[in-house]
Amino acid sequence: MNELNKNEKRILSAILLIGFFSSFVLMFIYSQLAVLFFICMLVFLGIGVALGNKELKENERRLDDMIKGKLRENHFHNEEYHLGQNQLSGMAVDETSEKVAIFGRQTPEQDFSFTVVNFEDIIESAIVEDGETVTKTSRGSQVGGALVGGALAGGVGAVIGGLSGKQKSNETVKKMSLNIVVDSIPNPVHEVNFSNRYLKKSKPEYKKYYDFVNNWHKMISVIIKRNETEN
After folding, report:
1. Does residue 125 contact residue 217 with C-beta atoms inside 8 Å?
2. How far apart (Å, rounded) are the C-alpha atoms in residues 133 and 177?
């Protein structure tokens, strides 16, 4: 089905390109009809944009339905999830069932493989930029005062204070991800993508992405520290 959709898309793109450039050439050959051909060019361009947007929205809807369906299959009460910028990995946290779902695939054409982890089996969470750990929380590590005492009584989704970890400073970041280590011998490390584009640390866009990944990192950190407190 995916291959069929690809072929149909190639054919449609070819037709639109032929129509667009034919109108462009004819506009110069028949200058008296320039306005008419210019309108034809705009029509072909508009059709292409509209069809492209429609296909994009339809693909996003199918992807959303598939991910939420998988979460329901795994008895998640919360269907909110993060999907990476490259749409190859994502995660969801369900405080009610005390589970974290981590899902990934190699290519956009593949189905996601889901790994569901109990809160108690999470060992470490780390924000990683271009292969270097920026900050992390793990069992037994020291954390900032915002996670001590009363902060642990709040919900997992609460935005709390900073966490400890090694800091690395570069001017730009190409890849930003959250690495989660779980209690599993065959598959202990799961990488969830958040950004795979060049971001200058001096720009607001970097802060937007970092705040987003940091919020998920703090959620997992609360889970880790809550388990330590309870045990």
Report:
1. yes
2. 10
- CA-CA distance, 41 to 142, in Å (whole number)? 63
pTM: 0.68
- Interatomic CA distance for residues 152 and 40, integer angstroms: 63
CA-CA distance, 36 to 18, in Å (whole number)? 17
| Rounded CA separation 56/48 (Å) | 12
Per residue in 133-191, pLDDT (tens digit) is: 999 999 876 443 334 333 333 444 443 334 444 444 578 999 999 999 999 999 999 99
Asked whether residue 218 falls in the same domain as residue 108, the answer is: yes
DSSP 111: P
Cα(52)–Cα(86) distance, integer angstroms: 18
Say if 96 falls within a structural domain.
yes
- pLDDT of res. 140: 78
My answer on whether 122 and 176 are in the same domain is: yes
The first and second tokens of residue 30, run together, are 């028949």
The pair phi, psi for residue 154, each rounded to 5°, is -75, 175
Residue with tokens 């809160």: 119
Which CA distances in Å does 214 have to 127, 157, 163, 168?
A: 7, 12, 9, 15
For 169, the domain range is 78-230
